[in-house]
Structure prediction request, 189 residues.
Amino acid sequence: MHIVLASRSPRRIELIQQLGITADVLPADIDETPHPHETPVDYVVRLAKEKALAVHRMAKSDLLILAADTTVDVDGQILGQPTDREDARNMLKKLSGRAHRVHTGVAVCSHGEIRSTVVSSIVIFHPMTDETMEWYLSTGESMGKAGAYAIQGQGGVLVETVRGSLSNVIGLPLTETAQLLGISAPPAD
Prediction:
């Protein structure tokens, strides 16, 4: 299967490849500002749909368009990508020693028709010392990551446990994405 991926995220590209899919990468340029009183779940679903439609208008292709958006949710507060190191530090302080939710909205656009879903996982962080936090910030990995961490990278040491889809926390829930794309699992041997 060949699709258009409305993201330049290396993580999403790798996850798509795990499904045996090749993709043309065409990132969407949309305003990602949360609407007033918008829940984190509504936010990621809206952004995924808007990205898919924006790329549909640009692509002029009959290929399926896949878009996704991931956010970290702490008590209903949306933690997107940090703007700078201090913002990343503040996010990590909020996550230290507690549970939070990671939501990913996924949308597929075909001929202007949208199908979407949202997947949520619970992530529990170990309590972080100041030294651990400064070490992690010094890796630079926080930038460009919702909630200021990458579970698939060095940020994995911050995580005590994950309940739910790990691929969702990375940025694209594989099972649900395959279902939206109409991909069935190969038969078991």
